[in-house]
Amino acid sequence: MIQFLLNNQLVTEEALDPNLTILNYLRGHLRRTGTKEGCASGDCGACSVTLGKAVNGAMQYETVNSCLTLVSTLQGKQLITVEDLRHGGALHPAQQAMVDCHGSQCGFCTPGFVMSLFSLQKSVSGWDRHQAESALAGNLCRCTGYRPIMAAAQQLCSQPVSDPFDHHAASVAQRLTALANQEMQQLSGDGRHCYLPKTPAQLAQIYLEHPEARLIAGGTDLSLTITQQHQRIPVLIALEQVAALKVCSEFDDHYLLGASASLQQVAEFLTDRIPGISEMLQRFASLQIRLQGTLGGNIANASPIGDASPMLLALNATLLLQQGEQQRLLPLDQFFTGYRQTRLLPGEFIRAIRIDKVTVSPDFVAWKVSKRLDDDISAVFAAFNLEIEQGQVRAARIAFGGMAATPKRATHCEQALLDQPFNAVTVSRAAAALAEDFQPLSDFRASADYRLQVARNLLRRYYHRYNGELTCIEVARYVS
Known about the structure:
The chain contains 18 helices and 20 strands.
């Protein structure tokens, strides 16, 4: 059974297939057809809805892709759709701004844009173009063009108007807080089951009892099995309610990042601590995906093109794993065993990711090469973590994604740099050594030759950046 608020109405669902997405729940069960399906993969934003949650007694609103988000995520939250915004006979300010600025033509994408605008206005104070671009980057429009939509965002944020959601925020937060408890819940339907543990101990126990289950956190990758491959997962264990797995902490000698911390949360936590990660995560995907996708999920799916793993490999990160009551530490560079294969044991899960401060170079950077600047999958991803003292390379940790069956350290390249003067000759030898580290494949994103050449160019780019020799034009040339 799960309980949530549909706007202000308490909803209790006892028998739903846990493979059901919020989009299909809205359209098929509730007949709320304002929310649209465009891509069923989290790319277009037509399905965007807002989830409200109580945080320290106040309401926090986030836009999510309902086409990828399963119904179990609704537990203890407020679900707001485009149908909820109009109050009486008046349009909501987010809707009115789209009308005033002529931000809609065919209208198919409009409900998603309106919900992203609604969440944006609730989370910012005043107009900031960069914030608006980030909030709307996950919403695509094929006919209107983005200038009038950005004008609507500016009108909405520059002239904020109090609405019924503001008036009822305190009472809604109280109602959502009252739905919280420490008992593990279960949602079942059509012979399929989803367990919702609340603590790491409950998670560890139920996963031991059901090692065949699939763990789902944000679901931005796993849900594609349902929405695009049309498969059904018999047993799910949802991690959304396990608050302890979302905590990011700083200690004297290391950072500890909860495996279920969202990519957006990790980016914000590391902004001043490891800015190279924070900056690159802003290119990871749209805001909707970053708010849902988790750091642990991006590692555990073992994709060769996952953006988080190369950065963490270069930082010599360690995973804290748990199976039952037993915990163990495993270096990330020993975690991947093959294409989408890992050393996780049956019933074992990633609890946290540890980064020792001593391994973080102030010159750590990560670069992503893809066909689009934003919201695209990497052709090549590179992370460089070098320690250079008096012109000598004292430590070198370099990792790539998209170059092998797994994210991987470039050990031959590292050895070519280690204890050598950091100059053009050394970099040239290290670039040549990349051919010993990787024999990349050709696919629709890039050819093998292109990938190897780009990897070498990124190493050269790091060298010229370190020496302060890059101009904007040269940066564009290196990544084009």
